[in-house]
Write a structure and sequence with these properties.
Keywords: Coiled coil. Residues 131-150 are annotated as: Disordered. Residues 250-312 form a coiled coil. By secondary structure, the chain is mainly α. The protein folds into two domains: 1-126, no CATH class; 142-357. It contains eight helices and two strands, in the order H-H-H-H-H-H-H-E-E-H. A two-stranded antiparallel sheet has the order 1-2. A hairpin with a 2-residue loop joins strand 1 (398-399) and strand 2 (402-403). Helix 3 packs across helix 4 (89-119) and helix 7 packs across helix 8 (405-412). 10% of the residues are buried.
Length: 418
């Protein structure tokens, strides 16, 4: 498999690359690359990551608003989703269909968001401070501070909620894994006991048949020994009393021979029964082996079916985990973008405050200089009036019946004055 399915690029890398692409798209004369232009590149599984970054300002803004990383929208074939523990192609196919549906949905939302920006007549501005200055020309720095504090509190609450959700997810996965392990151990213990009982039964049956066979062999040996002894005894008796036998003895001998033949026939019947018992024993052994093989086959099928069900459940749980982590990643990226915008707004307010302070200082300096000039003029006017008291030719100071103040001040101004 190519990479971890739940792996994402760091939010700061995502923000930096998109801001760089947005700046390049707004300043260069090269054709802008939109999300729709990237469809062919995204569908190429071998395309490099840098080729998947749009440069159109609206496309980049849509990624900012949705918290979507265009690198995550790259297509991957079915075999890319195969894992080592996958024993069935259906599991890989299900994983591929789930993740591909999410990828298509995110791509659709990104295209719709770009169209929405076009309908809003959204205009890009490569200088964020200038855009904020245009939109927030009358903003109050105190309201900005309050908004910063409110945003910080909201981010703190969001962070605690995300940590709580992640902790609940981890606890749920741990509990589910413990239950699955206990269930698996219980099933394995039952299967092991069943196999041990079957083996013990086979061993007991084999021991019983072996013991029965030993008893039959011992009985046959005893019968053969008795027959041999009887034959020897009969021969000895026949040789001893052959001359003394009468017709009655001959009849008795025939009866004895008939009796021995009957015993021999019964012995043959016992041998036939013993052979039939051996054949029945072999058939029982074969039947036990067949039942054991059938049970092993059914057990293997059951294990394969359970493994497939567990794999499908794991695919579903991994997919749900990815959805939650994707949501967390989108929230983090959108929060980072909002914090960046808030920081730029704060910097704008700071620059504006500095400009206002500078203008205020300039006005204060101008007022101070004006006051100083007025005070100087009052002093010079006082000196001029004092000099008029001692002037004999007052008419020379007037022209046309009026006194020129500038001429009066120039006469009374010290020679070192500028």
């Amino acid at each position: 498999m190519g990479q971890n399915l739940i792996e994402h690029r760091p939010a700061m890398v995502w923000l930096t690359e998109l801001q760089k692409a947005k700046a390049e798209g707004g300043t260069t004369t090269k054709p802008k690359i939109t999300v729709q232009d990237l469809l062919e590149r995204i569908n190429d599984p071998n395309a490099p990551e840098q080729a998947l970054i749009p440069t159109s300002p609206r496309s980049v803004q849509a990624c900012f608003r949705l918290g979507v990383d265009p690198v995550d929208l790259q297509f991957h074939p079915v075999h890319w989703y195969k894992q080592k523990e996958d024993a069935d192609e259906e599991v890989t196919r299900l994983r591929y269909e789930r993740y591909e549906a999410v990828r298509q949905e995110r791509l659709r939302l990104l295209i719709e968001e770009r169209k929405h920006l076009i309908n809003e007549n959204w205009q890009a501005n490569t200088d964020p401070r200038a855009m904020l200055r245009r939109n927030d020309s009358g903003a109050d720095p105190r309201s900005s501070s309050a908004m910063v504090e409110k945003e910080r509190q909201r981010l703190e609450v969001l962070k605690r909620r995300q940590e709580k959700e992640l902790q609940q997810m981890v606890q749920y996965e741990i509990t589910r894994k413990e239950l699955l392990d206990k269930q698996q151990k219980r099933v394995e213990e039952q299967e092991r006991r069943a196999m041990e009982q079957a083996q013990l039964k086979i061993q007991h049956e084999a021991a019983r048949m072996a013991k029965q066979r030993e008893i039959e062999l011992q009985r046959m040996a005893e019968e053969k020994e008795m027959e041999r002894r009887a034959r020897v005894l009969a021969e000895e008796t026949y040789r001893s009393y052959r001359t003394k036998l009468s017709k009655t003895w001959l009849i008795h001998a025939r009866e004895e021979a008939h009796k021995k033949e009957e015993e021999h026939r019964k012995h043959l019947e016992r041998l036939d029964k013993y052979a039939a018992a051996l054949e029945t024993e072999e058939m029982c052994k074969l039947s036990v082996k067949e039942r054991a093989a059938e049970k092993e086959r059914l057990l293997a099928e059951l294990n394969a079916r359970r493994k497939k069900e567990n794999d499908l459940k794991k695919v579903d749980s991994d997919f749900q985990l990815k959805l939650r982590l994707d949501k967390v990643d989108c929230i983090q990226k959108m929060s980072l973008y909002n914090r960046q915008q808030l920081l730029e707004r704060i910097m704008h307010d700071y620059d504006k405050t500095r400009e206002l302070l500078k203008e205020r200082q300039d006005l204060q300096t101008q007022r101070k200089m004006a006051n100083m000039n007025a005070s100087l003029q009052r002093q010079m006017m006082s000196k001029a009036m004092d000099s008029l008291r001692f002037t004999k030719n007052v008419g020379s100071l007037s022209s046309g019946g009026s006194v020129n103040i500038n001429d009066l001040l120039s006469r009374t101004r010290p020679s070192t004055a500028l």
